[in-house]
Recover the amino acids of this structure.
């Protein structure tokens, strides 16, 4: 019951949101709806018995697809991430003015609904449905409210991801044909006895779709442009939650279904991920645009998680779970800062900024803390995650771990360079008249920073939440 | 219908008579399906009405009804012979009915002819337009040629087997059994028949007439041709070949694979380069025919049959809807759609739902249609590479469908439209809602097949 509620609250709120015309009203509606979802999520996950955490209804009995949704550890964590992110995003961007605000917020809520649907589906066809459905609102959001080159860039993003999804559909059909009881349920899919030779093709079909989504080098070319051109609120959703869709999907749908293929192809995929990490970090060092820098940094972080998934091992997998949540809120914090800088100063270029620390000290403090989180300094939540991930990688292969370790240093370079250029140094013409960050963003950032440090010191709740998923995975391995 | 033209020149009355007529047809068909009330005409086993065929009739009549709801007033604007246009549409429906229930190659031929000849006339009905005349002539000449080929093929098959493939009460199943005498005659006949049926459904490499004919014909009739007629042709194709393929043996798969890949490739890639939306839709209908051919691939499975029906319904609805919007616009190029969302949001929304359905996005009927035909192909042990190629080309199709959506929503412009009534908008919304409902619950349509 709870998952269904979590799905329908943003959906209904989104549909109703289309009819609101006024900016403040639309923003309030979105905040209220997302807070309601958040409360439902927290209460549902922590206070309700486990029987309320799944739901099944018949949908298409003739082909064996059911509306079957459930919350296990990993999906609980990701649903919480989505439910926590949306109110934060809405509050932080409250001062942004959008034309047709009702449509904007409605599409954001629909995107949230689609995302939650991806995380809770336990039926392959339903999963595919939600995978696509999460994409459509984002397509419209980016194309209408985005930057100058938005139409072409979003089009590329859409077709690229859609091609991946179609390939995944073929993979789903292939596995479906091999299920014993002709059904799309996750349990049937994991029970198919695919021979190792048969596993390879569907493994790649699935994996390509998820590799495009994460993205993994070399399928990442859509990402920096798409993140840059999208309106920053949408980028927050894209980067904070949607990329986790790719990682989640690998853990949920690839590892259990194709264990042999996973271990066969693990090394090339790990190497690709690590190459992507170093590549993206090197490019990030050269970036002038804040949004593009954060986008490349995101590729690097996700690359580490992807590598750890395929490297396997308890610590690595646990690290992925923890880091998914941590990276989610960290990167949203960074995007909020980018949004604040862009909307008040009108520029995103590092070369034009400088000396903001003297003008906006609170923002500077928050910026620095989040920058440290991006580097994964101890005391921040990202450190816990990266420590576990590196452990996993190290046990797999020392050289790979060493190469990945280089990217941490590179990460420090570009992040601190960004901090230096934005906050310190001489006050530039643009920042001469800068004011303190607006109070909405400020309070959201304070919440995030508290979470960063709290989880950095005591990550146990997160680990407890996702422990059962990790154990289930290891059993399959 | 034809005679109503004598009694009144009031276009509205004629239009209403036509709409009511289709409703009567639909009702009669439904009653026949449920054995409520039927005429019992002794057709000497030439026509066998089975549930599947009757259900397809329902879809065809239903689609025609929606078509008339949306575009009937545009039909009356084409020329002065208003009642004749509607009469010709009814003749075409007669051909559709024969094609869904024929039992013998002779009836197939008659059905195809009855289907095609009114279309030749309808294509050229805009007499003052040179393109329309050219399209009509082209269609007629090539159609006549292909009918000749079909007759040759049927004659060869008759020569080989001694009958037209009629078996009492069962359908076109008997042909295969009597093939011992002259197998090469039979093979030649089947190949010729395949070629001419491919012409009718515009499968490559016999598709060359489609873009010019669809582009030259008045858009209302293009709408009718590219949906209901194509679906009927497809159904006839499948019914003829569902049991004939054993004749050709393993080469059959090679031929069908080639046809599917060529159709999808040519249809999708050429559509990418089109600047005129009408022509793009013509090429896209070729591509959609390619997908429907997948149902031929696996025609012995239940899921492929359901897929064919669902594909016919989804594709017809979506195309009728997008054509209805297209007809209202003065400018058929992509730029003519710029900014439609601001000026006519209802039209833009309905067009978007139709385009999403044609692309195969989940939540629309088109997704399930594609899913069913692909699943059917996979279940029949289809070559996986074929399905992957089809899926990649479907991604290509997203490109040109979405260009229209982009023009409507994201570009600025002032599209000139014909006057639009409120009833039109309501009908468009209803069709869009139906597409979405089918997209969430395809069983709504398919369960009717079985109860």
């Amino acid at each position: 019951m709870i998952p269904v509620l979590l799905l329908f609250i943003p959906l209904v709120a989104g549909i109703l949101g289309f009819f609101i015309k006024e900016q403040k009203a639309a923003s309030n509606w979105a905040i209220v709806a997302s807070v309601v979802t958040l409360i439902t999520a927290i209460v549902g996950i922590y206070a309700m018995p486990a029987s309320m955490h799944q739901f099944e209804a018949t949908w298409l009995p003739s082909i064996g697809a059911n509306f079957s949704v459930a919350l296990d550890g990993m999906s609980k964590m990701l649903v919480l991430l989505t439910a926590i992110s949306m109110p934060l995003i809405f509050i932080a961007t409250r001062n942004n003015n959008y034309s047709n605000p009702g449509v904007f917020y409605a599409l954001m809520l629909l995107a949230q609904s689609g995302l939650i649907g991806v995380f809770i589906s336990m039926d392959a066809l339903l999963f595919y449905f939600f995978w696509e459905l999460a994409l459509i609102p984002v397509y419209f959001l980016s194309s209408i409210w985005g930057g100058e080159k938005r139409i072409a860039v979003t089009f590329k993003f859409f077709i690229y991801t859609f091609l991946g999804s179609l390939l995944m559909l073929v993979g789903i059909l292939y596995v479906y044909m091999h299920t014993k009881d002709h059904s799309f349920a996750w349990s049937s899919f994991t029970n198919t006895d695919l021979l190792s030779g048969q596993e390879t093709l569907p493994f790649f079909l699935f994996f390509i779709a998820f590799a495009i989504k994460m993205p993994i080098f070399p399928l990442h070319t859509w990402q920096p442009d798409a993140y840059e051109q999208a309106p920053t609120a949408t980028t927050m959703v894209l980067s904070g939650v949607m990329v986790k869709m790719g990682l989640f999907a690998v853990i949920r749908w690839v590892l259990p279904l194709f264990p042999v293929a996973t271990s066969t192809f693990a090394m090339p995929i790990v190497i690709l991920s690590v190459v992507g990490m170093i590549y993206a970090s090197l490019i990030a060092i050269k970036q002038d645009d804040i949004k593009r820098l954060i986008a490349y940094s995101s590729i690097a972080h996700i690359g580490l998680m992807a590598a750890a998934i395929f490297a396997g091992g308890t610590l690595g997998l646990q690290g992925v779970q923890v880091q998914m949540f941590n990276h989610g809120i960290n990167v949203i914090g960074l995007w909020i800062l980018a949004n604040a800088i862009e909307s008040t100063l009108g520029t995103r270029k590092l070369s034009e900024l400088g000396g903001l620390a003297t003008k906006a000290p609170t923002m500077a403090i928050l910026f620095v803390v989040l920058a440290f989180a991006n580097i994964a300094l101890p005391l921040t939540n990202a450190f816990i995650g990266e420590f576990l991930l590196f452990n996993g990688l190290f046990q797999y292969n020392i050289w790979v771990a060493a190469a990945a370790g280089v990217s941490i240093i590179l990460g420090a370079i570009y992040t601190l360079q960004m901090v230096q250029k934005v906050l310190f140094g001489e006050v530039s013409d643009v920042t001469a008249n800068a004011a303190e960050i607006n109070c909405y963003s400020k309070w959201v950032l304070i919440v995030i920073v508290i979470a960063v440090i709290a989880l950095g010191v005591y990550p146990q709740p997160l680990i407890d939440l996702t422990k059962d998923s990790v154990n289930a995975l290891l059993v399959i391995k | 219908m034809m005679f109503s033209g004598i009694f009144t020149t009031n276009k509205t009355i004629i239009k209403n008579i036509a709409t009511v007529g289709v409703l009567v047809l639909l009702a009669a068909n439904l009653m026949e399906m449920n054995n409520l009330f039927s005429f019992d005409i002794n057709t000497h086993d030439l026509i066998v009405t089975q549930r599947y065929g009757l259900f397809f009739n329902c879809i065809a009549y239903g689609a025609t009804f929606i078509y008339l709801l949306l575009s009937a007033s545009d039909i009356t604007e084409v020329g002065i012979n208003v009642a004749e246009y509607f009469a010709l549409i009814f003749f075409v429906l007669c051909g559709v009915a024969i094609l869904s229930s024929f039992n013998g190659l002779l009836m197939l031929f008659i059905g195809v002819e009855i289907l095609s000849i009114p279309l030749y006339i309808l294509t050229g009905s805009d007499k003052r337009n040179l393109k329309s005349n050219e399209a009509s002539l082209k269609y007629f000449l090539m159609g006549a040629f292909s009918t000749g080929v079909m007759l040759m093929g049927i004659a060869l098959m008759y020569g080989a087997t001694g009958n037209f493939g009629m078996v009492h009460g069962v359908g076109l199943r008997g042909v295969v059994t009597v093939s011992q005498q002259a197998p090469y005659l039979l093979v030649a006949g089947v190949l010729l028949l395949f070629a001419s049926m491919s012409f009718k459904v515009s499968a490559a490499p016999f598709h060359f007439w489609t873009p010019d004919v669809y582009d030259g014909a008045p858009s209302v009739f293009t709408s009718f041709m590219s949906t209901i007629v194509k679906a009927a042709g497809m159904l006839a194709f499948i019914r003829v070949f569902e049991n004939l393929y054993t004749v050709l043996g393993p080469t059959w798969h090679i031929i069908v694979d080639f046809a599917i890949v060529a159709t999808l490739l040519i249809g999708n890639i050429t559509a990418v380069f089109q600047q005129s939306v009408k022509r793009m839709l013509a090429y896209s209908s070729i591509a959609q025919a390619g997908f429907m051919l997948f149902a031929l691939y696996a025609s012995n499975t239940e899921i492929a049959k359901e897929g064919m029906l669902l594909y016919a319904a989804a594709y017809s609805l979506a195309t009728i809807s997008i054509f209805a919007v297209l007809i209202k616009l003065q400018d058929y190029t992509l730029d003519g759609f710029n900014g439609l969302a601001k000026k006519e949001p209802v039209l833009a929304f309905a067009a978007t739902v139709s385009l999403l359905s044609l692309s195969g996005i989940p939540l629309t009927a088109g997704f399930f249609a594609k899913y069913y035909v692909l699943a059917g192909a996979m279940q029949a042990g289809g070559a996986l590479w074929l399905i992957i190629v089809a899926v990649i080309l479907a991604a290509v199709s997203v490109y040109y469908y979405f260009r229209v959506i982009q023009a409507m929503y994201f570009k600025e412009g002032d599209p000139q439209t014909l006057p639009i009534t409120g009833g039109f908008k309501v009908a468009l919304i209803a069709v869009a809602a139906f597409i979405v409902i089918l997209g969430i619950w395809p069983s709504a349509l398919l369960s009717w097949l079985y109860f």
Q: What stands out?
A: The radius of gyration of chain A is 21 Å.
